[in-house]
Design a protein that fits this description.
The chain is of the alpha/beta class. The protein is built from 16 helices and ten strands. The radius of gyration is 23 Å and the shape is globular. The structure holds 5-phosphoarabinonic acid.
């Protein structure tokens, strides 16, 4: 279960908005699939539509992949990267792994890819390339590089080491997979990238890591049913951030106290940033990792411009324990904490920060998560999907498109000399020359 506490945000409301009518209408619009972008609502019923057999075949494929190698190179970017990495970091030990999952194609850094190449040259590995469109430049380039490495190492057997997650019909990756006979996982065309972690995009690599994907989907299903009611915590969160936005708190910082959630914050930022940042609207999303960042950004949060609010992901129960030992010398004067667990201390740091920041003028919304396990990962992911849809519709934008990301791509293709972009290339070159004078 997820609980949202807005008591540290409410004092900042000038007058609490009554959004009952809007929420009722939007809830209906989501479930009747009649709102903007509703052709991308395939995620909505995914938890109840994913069958036992779907999961069994993903688990089987992952187990077979594990017999080939314990090193998996995942190639993908954006929605084909962030959510599955968030799941891996949340659900597996930071240090002790029986498998290795590496990532490529999420940037264009030559040094990153060279280092990875040199490392993999000496390794036995397999590839899962994930691209819904099958045409995204970063993963397509990385796939070329590492496919060649696999082919050089394993020759005709290389094809058996490539797993492709892509659209059922469209895209050059689909075409290549069909011709080469790679094993494929089909993606439905009504689920956008940032809403895809509960499909094979996330579930195959997570199953490869030995995680219980049935439990993940059980959590998502419970979330689905809990959020069928109109009076739910996902909408409470959406409504609160909307009210704060209208009151000039235009920056939302998502905060955690568990480093296992660090990448979850990255996933969350994409979900809300890409869904809402349109038509000159939307909260500017950012993240902070506490208590680490209290020693770097704490000053800014406490006394900087009063434009932000914090959304704190607070985990109630730690699955692991470590206690502070007694020390007869007590040079550090810490014996008053002896026998306490780090979670007890972390909890007090959370409360102390909550009080200090809210008293310093930063509204705080607290989202309490029972614990970090597969069930709660599935629950939380779906919780934020639903909150995001509600929140974007409250703002009046289409939650499911991302027209703005094309601008840089067009410029990049033109500057790289891609066919069909000559006219734009001339214009851009002229602009660059003018600016360099
Ligand atoms: O959310 C989105 O749609 C994007 O972030 C995409 O996931 C990202 O651009 C990668 O696209 P693709 O999976 O088509 O390679």
């Amino acid at each position: 279960m997820i609980k949202v506490n807005i008591n540290y945000a409410k004092p900042f409301f000038k007058k609490e908005l009554n959004l009952e009518k809007e929420i009722k209408e939007i809830h209906q619009k989501i479930h009747e699939k009649s709102g903007l972008g509703s052709e991308f609502l395939g995620w909505l019923e995914l938890p109840i539509k994913t069958t036992e057999n779907d999961l069994k075949s993903l688990i089987k494929a992952a187990q077979e992949a594990r017999t080939k190698s314990s090193t998996l190179l995942v190639i993908g970017i954006g929605g084909s990267y962030l959510g599955l990495k968030a799941g891996l970091e949340m659900l597996t030990s930071t240090f002790n792994k029986e498998f290795e999952i590496l990532f490529a194609g999420f940037n264009l850094s030559e040094s990153y890819h060279r280092d990875l190449y040199d490392y993999l040259k000496e390794k036995d590995f397999i590839i899962n390339v994930i691209s819904k469109s099958g045409t995204t430049t970063e993963p397509a380039l990385a796939f070329r590089i590492f496919k060649k490495l696999l082919e050089d190492k394993y020759h005709e057997k290389a094809n058996e080491r490539i797993f492709v997650t892509t659209d059922k019909e469209k895209g050059s990756l689909r075409k290549m997979a069909s011709l080469k006979g790679y094993q494929t996982f089909d993606l439905a065309n009504d689920i956008g990238g940032r809403f895809s972690v509960l499909t094979a995009v996330g579930l195959f690599p997570l199953a490869f890591a030995g995680l219980d994907i049935k439990e993940i989907m059980r959590g998502a299903k419970a979330s689905y049913y809990d959020l069928l009611k109109r009076d739910n915590d996902a909408y409470l969160y959406a409504k609160t951030r909307y009210q704060l936005y209208l009151e000039g708190k235009t920056i939302e910082t998502i905060v955690n106290y568990e480093p296992q959630l660090n990448f979850f914050l990255e996933w969350w930022m994409q979900l809300f940033g890409e869904s809402e940042g349109k038509d000159n609207k939307g909260l500017f999303v950012s993240s902070a990792k506490f208590t680490t960042d209290l020693h770097s950004l704490g000053q800014l949060f406490q006394e900087g411009p009063r434009l932000m609010f914090e959304t704190v992901l607070k985990v109630k129960e730690s699955s692991k324990t470590i206690k502070i030992p007694a020390d007869n010398d007590n040079f550090d004067d810490l014996n008053y904490l002896k026998e306490k667990s780090l979670t007890e201390i972390n909890d007090q740091a959370f409360l102390a920060t909550l009080l200090a920041h809210s008293e310093g003028g930063v509204p705080n919304v607290v989202i309490e998560i029972e614990k970090l396990d597969c069930y709660h990962f599935g629950y939380l992911v779906y919780f934020f999907f639903k909150a995001c849809a509600m929140s974007a519709y409250l703002l009046g934008v289409n939650p499911f498109n991302q027209p703005g990301v094309e601008a840089y791509k067009d410029n990049m293709f033109a500057l790289l000399g891609k066919q069909g972009y000559q006219e734009l290339a001339q214009k851009l070159t002229k602009k660059i020359e003018d600016k360099s004078e």
